[in-house]
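Re-run with default settings, no changes from the original entry. Doing this only to confirm the output is reproducible before filing.
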Amino acid sequence: MNPTISDSHTLDGSGTGAFTSDITGLNGDTTYYVRAYATNSAGIGYGNNLTFKTDPPASSYTNSLDQTFVLIPAGTFTMGSPSNELGRDSNEEPQHEVTLTQAFYMQTTEVTQAQWEAVMGYNNCEPAILKRYIVCTICLTK
């Protein structure tokens, strides 16, 4: 597969000589095709076709706030509980199929007030006691 100038592209450098291009937002375990090109009054000049494959996403990671996340893979599952399950609540019905089209990471524990404040820059819980407690509510307006 040959990339074309109509595909996704970056605009890096001007003039003559070497350039560096940072490509972000790539998916894990995916093959990509890259080809550098330059345009000027004489036309378009192309570099070599390059192919690379990104590493598969990690199954878990821990960030600088000591929060651990696990990978939730894309796929289909049944949400809700069977009608004959003991202790079942009415908000668990009806059972239905859910499809996750993209994998994502989820924290392995509840978000604490201290973690919320470190990420968001404010704490919306009153009073903010013992920062190890979980966030009491999530309000997206400050």
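The helical segments are 113-120. The chain is about 5% helix and 30% strand.
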